[in-house]
Write a structure and sequence with these properties.
By secondary structure, the protein is of the alpha+beta class. The protein contains four helices and four strands.
Length: 146
């Protein structure tokens, strides 16, 4: 009888220790080997940008090739043109690739302005802007030629 009682306590103690070990095992931090998902994340971001490509900021785009030496004078010429066409222009110059300009021009002069940017002989708009005229954004890309 004494032997059975001792056996009962030993089995109970082992069983209790096992249950306690399982319960406390969840609290112990184990090193986890999580996979590196950054390549997948990069791929998904790129795909999303291609599929959901944002609409263009500008209403019209004009691309002009210019030599590196004439880049700054061409930027100044286009800014002056925008002023003459009752608008304004801002430039972002990148000496490596050229320059990007964004001009705000009255809608009725948009085609004339784009033509004046391409052809250096045209310098003034034909007509006068109507009061409260709607404006458009014209993007001008000055691409360097070697």
């Amino acid at each position: 009888m004494e032997k059975a009682r001792r056996m009962f306590w030993i089995v109970g103690l082992i069983l209790s220790a096992g249950i306690l070990a399982v319960a406390l095992g969840g609290y112990w931090s184990r090193p986890r080997n999580e996979p590196d998902l950054s390549p997948l994340n990069h791929y998904l971001e790129g795909t999303a940008q291609k599929v959901l490509s944002l609409s263009k900021v500008a209403d019209a785009t004009v691309e002009v090739k210019v030599s590196r030496a004439a880049l700054q004078s061409e930027v100044d010429r286009i800014k002056d043109l925008a002023t003459k066409f009752d608008g304004s222009a801002v430039a972002d110059s990148n000496r490596q690739t050229g320059a990007d300009l964004l001009a705000v021009i009255p809608e009725q002069f948009a085609d004339q302005f784009a033509e004046a940017v391409r052809v250096t002989s045209k310098t003034a708009p034909e007509g006068t802007p109507s009061p409260g005229a709607k404006t458009v954004l014209v993007e001008i890309k000055l691409v360097l030629t070697e």
